[in-house]
Structures are given as structure tokens and as C-alpha cells.
Specification:
The protein is 64% helix and 8% strand. It is built from four helices and two strands. The radius of gyration is 11 Å and the shape is globular.
Length: 74
């Protein structure tokens, strides 16, 4: 499996920013593009990475935290 650097950057920004809106502002792209990247990563990995709560926050799953730990070694 090959994960695109842009997708990994968006994942990291979403994980650290906690919301699609904040990630889109930091990445200077649309919220819909961040959601598309999020969905693409989930499709490639076959696991849910974030859950959305009532406040619009992206809450990381255990799979997202594991991916983050794996990226730390890169």
C-alpha cells in the first residue's frame, strides 16, 4: 500500500487540529477536500480513523492513533 505524502500531511493536520475546518484552514484547502482525503485514507487502510462528534470535532479512533505512532518513526 502506498500512502500519498499529501494525505499523510492532511491526516496529521486533522489529528492535531481536531476538526476539518481547522485542518482546511491550515492546509489552505477546502473542508470538502480534507473530508475526501480522510475518506480515501480510510478506504485504503480499511479502518475508520475519526469519528465526528456533535461539536464538529474529528475524534481519532485507535486506528488513527496507531497510524500516528507509526508515522512518528518515519
Amino acid at each position: 500500500m502506498h500512502l500519498e505524502p499529501l494525505h499523510l500531511r492532511a491526516f496529521n493536520t486533522l489529528l492535531n487540529g481536531g476538526s476539518v475546518t481547522r485542518a482546511s484552514l491550515e492546509l489552505r484547502t477546502s473542508a470538502s477536500n480534507v473530508r475526501r482525503i480522510w475518506q480515501s485514507l480510510e478506504d485504503q487502510l480499511g479502518e475508520k480513523l475519526f469519528n465526528s462528534n456533535d461539536q464538529g470535532e474529528a475524534v481519532p479512533t485507535s486506528a488513527a492513533l496507531a497510524l500516528d505512532r507509526g508515522m512518528a518513526s518515519l
